[in-house]
Write a structure and sequence with these properties.
single chain; 797 residues; alpha+beta; 14-stranded mixed β-sheet; 16 helices; globular
Length: 797
């Protein structure tokens, strides 16, 4: 990230991180001058402008003072006076990356930034403005066709709005969880390999050339929100972070299920961080908890259709031994450790089988995988049909809270105390932990005894500082939640989990005596608002509309008619976006992430069908590209189960480590130690949970023992496509695909919504879209920019 001083060989004992830059140009070179926050370190980067086909970047190894740097610029100006001298171009805050389509390279820079929060004194920023700077003085002259395509590629890339939902930090590795940051000493280049760094491809060239990350920033895409709250008269900060994976990334109907490498669509890591509001010289207490969401890890799809509001779910039988599913869960074990708890929110029964197809196949896959695992390492699988209980928000949230309590008993939370001298200078690493003799951190992350006992005699004369050193706690394992889209129902479940976790976090910090937060507490409403905002943001990114928040609206006592109207309009917005906008959004994502790399003489991106371009790169066909979308035969009738006859995936097709075996003990994601938690587990029965001396590993729907850890909790239930089905049943009876255009072509006023997707559908109007005459311009603008059609804020008294 813009910031690590030195190479990847290791962190300097007193690392400095460049945070502000100035770009100058001569006829033959760009010169970028970077300095640290305290103006004590100045570095110089030279970018050649004469070779338009290659990126030539040279870093001056000298660390300059401010006076020395000014003198260097003066000499460069004098040496180039005959050709115009040295000219100032722009001030910036880091390099996003270098872009090349069919012509020459361009450099993408952050020219304005905004502080959006801080973690232990380490500032987190969003992008307010970015600029694209062509590298050569004169653009490459090419034929008219290539020039036209070059402009089209640039326009397509510009639809990725980096000013929305992207964030970064110079001194905090925001692409990793707090626990990983504090428990691993990793160098800068490694961080860019994270699945959550979206400009990994754009920065690959400069990072490999320089061998460091001094000049670039690592962008994370998703959601970041920090609020100051209080409980029992004590203030604390709550930070909610959602990190969207760049692997198998895309839009709702164009990215579903799993690919051959075990990557799933809509894969998002959510982290909830709580830390006390104390003076900078004091020791600080901090806690975090991580949960995960992601598409059902099977080979399945839904083809977007302008004629079908509820597309068929198409299930492939290409992987009979569930190898890709196994690889997916092995990856979760590597990231988070055991146990992996799966909360499946899709429907238990339907008149026409749609979700139930996936429900049955998912259970079958887990049962198959668990056969080869020891009991303690088996996947914990919970079915919970949220839709059946969504009509009473209080009951649904209470039951979800019990699931959360069960999961947290198994995984625990992360808690530690941070030394004051490590809060702002340098990275937040293991050396920042305050430990005592009983602290379990040594046994969990120090097999080679390379972690020395730290001095805990921090100045405690300040009355606001904590005097006792509490043992560090670690989270081991994770709760993975899914519905069909992993948007609406999943967000409700994640909020319920976050609320239970918040009670434990505040208790660990010492702010509350009880681990439970009352459902009627103001803190509950505050947390719900943050999760609701996150849900809207993630839904706009993947689904094209804000999230369906029926349960949240019910919990707040909002007027039912107003809620139904809002949900109905969100459904229409999502339908329109999926049918008409997602193809362009997907192409923009593929271009930004480097999944498609334009080549002269090869088909352009817009000339390819669907995701064919994943197999076409600069180095020829990629026969094993993890982002390639499976090819499915279209099912023409609603609710059909499409059984594919594709070649099966065998063990030789997908290499994997036996991470889900009984010999697997190392928990790479968080910690290799298990927190002290109750050993009893929750089991399914006709009662919600019952205490048992020895829990069977699995229960089927008849309460009989099975050979897999599969809890089928009948007292939960969920909806069609994230509440869409119920809304259509109530509000769209008789509304066919033939007359939907007429229904939508009405004058509607717009009002800005709080959040919008950063992947825009382009600056298009209704006249620029094919077959869009039936939609009004206000409706098109509403879908394109994420605004609400009508502001409805009715609440019951």
């Amino acid at each position: 990230m813009a910031g690590e001083n030195g190479t990847d060989a290791g962190l300097d004992s007193n690392p400095s991180y460049l945070q502000k830059f100035r770009l100058y140009e001569t006829r033959s070179n760009f010169y970028m001058i970077g300095r640290d926050k305290n103006r004590t370190l100045w570095r110089v980067l030279k970018i050649d402008r004469l070779d338009p086909s290659e990126l030539t970047v040279v870093e001056d190894s000298t660390a300059y003072s401010e006076i020395e740097c000014c003198d260097l610029l003066r000499r460069i100006h004098e040496g180039n006076r005959s050709s115009g001298g040295l000219k100032f171009v722009t001030a910036c805050y880091g390099i996003i990356g270098f872009v090349k389509f069919l012509g020459s390279y361009s450099m993408m820079l952050i020219t304005k930034r905004k502080k959006i929060g801080a973690i232990c004194g380490h500032t987190i920023y969003s992008i307010s403005k970015r600029e694209m700077i062509p590298i050569p003085k004169s653009p490459i002259q090419s034929n008219m066709a290539y020039s036209k395509n070059e402009k089209r590629y640039k326009k397509l890339l510009s639809t990725v709005d980096l000013t929305k939902d992207f964030f970064f930090s110079y001194t905090y590795n925001v692409m990793h969880s707090l626990q990983r940051n504090l428990c691993r000493d990793e160098t800068g280049l490694v961080h860019y390999e994270s699945m959550f760094v979206w400009n990994e491809f754009l920065t690959r060239g400069i990072r490999s050339t320089l061998g460091n990350t001094l000049w670039t920033v690592a962008l994370v895409y998703g959601f970041f929100k920090q609020v100051k709250l209080s409980v029992s008269g004590k203030n604390f900060f709550l930070t909610l972070i959602a990190r969207r994976s760049r692997h198998y990334a895309g839009t709702r109907y164009l990215k579903r299920g799993v690919n051959e490498k075990g990557r799933v669509a809509n894969d998002v890591e959510t982290e909830q961080i709580v830390f006390e509001d104390v003076h900078e010289v004091c020791r600080s207490q901090i806690s975090s908890v991580v949960q995960n969401r992601g598409s059902i890890p099977l080979f399945w799809s839904q083809e977007t259709s302008r004629l079908n509001l509820k597309p068929d779910i198409i299930l492939s039988k290409k992987d009979p031994i569930y190898e890709a599913t196994r690889v997916h869960f092995e990856n979760l074990v590597m990231r988070y450790g055991n146990p992996i708890i799966i909360l499946n929110l899709i429907k238990r029964s339907e008149k026409k089988p749609r979700e139930t197809i996936l429900r049955a196949e998912f259970a079958k896959a887990i049962r198959f995988i668990n056969k080869s695992l020891s009991k303690e390492n088996r996947l914990r699988f919970l079915h919970w049909d949220l839709n059946r209980h969504s009509r009473k928000a209080t009951n649904a949230l209470e039951l979800l809270g019990r699931v959360a309590d069960y999961a947290l008993n198994l995984t625990g939370i992360f808690y530690c105390q941070v030394t004051p001298n490590c809060r702002q200078d340098g990275l937040l690493t293991l050396s920042c932990l305050v430990q005592n003799d009983e602290c379990p951190a040594k046994s969990s992350y120090d097999k080679t005894d390379d972690i020395e006992k730290l001095d805990t005699d921090v100045a405690n004369d300040n009355e606001n500082c904590s005097e006792t050193v509490k043992p560090t706690m670690f989270q081991t394992g994770v709760l993975r939640t899914n519905c069909i889209d992993c948007l609406d129902r999943t967000n409700v479940a994640q909020y319920a989990y976050g609320l239970v976790a918040l009670g434990r976090q505040l208790h660990a910090i010492g702010f509350t005596e009880s681990q439970t937060i009352d459902q009627n507490s103001p803190l509950t409403e505050d947390l719900m608002a943050v999760y609701e905002t996150m849900g809207d943001t993630l839904a706009l990114q993947y689904g094209g509309s804000a999230a369906h928040n029926k349960i949240f609206c019910q919990r707040r006592g909002q007027w039912k008619a107003a809620t139904q109207s809002q949900e109905f309009f969100k459904t229409l917005q999502r339908y329109y976006s999926n049918a008409y906008m997602d193809a362009e959004k997907q192409s923009a994502i593929n271009l930004f992430l480097g999944h498609f790399q334009p080549q002269q003489g090869k088909p352009a991106l817009w000339e390819l069908d669907s995701d064919q371009h994943y197999c076409v790169g600069r180095h020829g066909p990629n026969l094993f590209n993890e982002n390639a979308r499976p090819s499915f035969r279209r099912s023409l009738s609603d609710g059909n189960f499409v059984s594919e006859t594709d070649s099966s995936l065998g063990a030789s097709n997908v290499g994997h480590c036996d991470l889900l075996s009984e010999n697997r003990g190392a928990l790479h994601g968080f910690s290799e130690s298990t927190p002290a938690i109750p050993t009893s587990e929750i089991s399914y029965s006709r009662q919600l949970f019952r205490d048992m001396e020895e829990d069977p590993v699995c229960y089927d729907e008849n309460d009989n023992d099975c050979n897999c850890t599969n809890f089928d909790l009948e007292w939960l239930s969920s909806s069609g496509n994230s509440f869409d089905e119920d809304i259509f049943n109530r509000s769209m009876t008789g509304l066919s695909s033939d007359n939907i255009g007429a229904e939508l072509n009405v004058g509607m006023t717009t009002s800005p919504s709080e959040s919008g997707s950063s992947i825009k559908g382009g600056n298009r109007t209704a006249s620029e879209l094919s077959n869009m005459d039936e939609f009004s311009e206000s409706f098109v603008n509403w879908v394109t920019h994420g605004d609400m059609l009508t502001p409805l804020y009715f609440t019951s008294k």
